[in-house]
Amino acid sequence: MLTARNLLTALMMTSLSLMVACGDDDDDDTADGGMEMDAEIDAAADASTIEAGTIADLLTTSTKYNFSMLLDAIDTANLLALVDEETDGPLTVFAPSNDATGIDMLPTAAADLATAIGYHVVAGDLTPDETTFLPTSATDAAGNNYSLYVWVDNTGTSPVITLNSQMGDAVVYTVVDTIDANNGVIHVIDRVLDVPNIAEMATAAGFTELLDAVGNSAGEGLTDIAGLLGDDADVITLLAPNNAAFLAAETALGGDLEVEFTAAEINSILQLHVLDLSGTAPVLAADVPNGTVTTANGEDLTTTAENLTADPMVQATFAGDGNDSAATVVAAGKDIVVENGVIHEINAVLLPAPPSSDK
Q1: CB 175 within 8 A of CB 94
Q2: Is the per-residue pLDDT at 6 higher than 70?
């Protein structure tokens, strides 16, 4: 197809050729001007080979990667317009090629595909340079955008970006290449992303101390906390103390959690971090009430919620009867939405009231 760019390049090259021909009468001018004209011709030729197009165009025309299976899935999910429009703002697409693990295991139903493909799409033209959680285009039943965990390692000569995993994990989802488009950017990935549940996201995001506590909470007749966090059938709101919170609690206790508490006590403490399961939608930061909320073991937490800005940026806090001060949600207003609920990272371990008798 004769595009405006190709026509301009052809005119430039024709014009330059005439200039060279006219300069033959002057040897000195030819020696100096010829080098300049050669450079201009090379620049024009380079310009004529620059590829441009939408994300859909570049997924279709790529010669380095074959995205035919992804494109078929996008078409079946009726999402082609999403990646082919330049007017609705830039997008970031994490694109598995035909060589990616799991590309042949995508669901076949259009609605399921829409969720699966939408989980690979993020608003904005992004090349992440720091570890963060990003909202994707895919949503849960309540309309909340599922979260994608982006881990960035800047310790080497060039950043290493992984998704819902970290280097050293058993399974790592790695960004292997980047392609710029008119309406955003394509990050080529080596595995198809699945929407994780709470247990999977806690593992990916490195809540190691919490997961150790979960492992130490098991016992006959006790609530299966590990099964609860990994059960996609329930809708859970988890208040997840970060690693620093657990270390601070152990410092205050004078020993490791599993030493200072029995498995039953650890189990009860962890249930204090799971909000009442009777709801059908997770409790987002913006929905935390000023008052109390009931937890999985029937105890109440004292809560506060304060709007920090005109956006719904909410500073939420939670306190158990055994806490001297409230735990604050880290990154106020950020909800980590997963397959079976939402995670709120908090900066302290919630504790029940001290027992009336010795352990």
Answers
A1: yes
A2: no
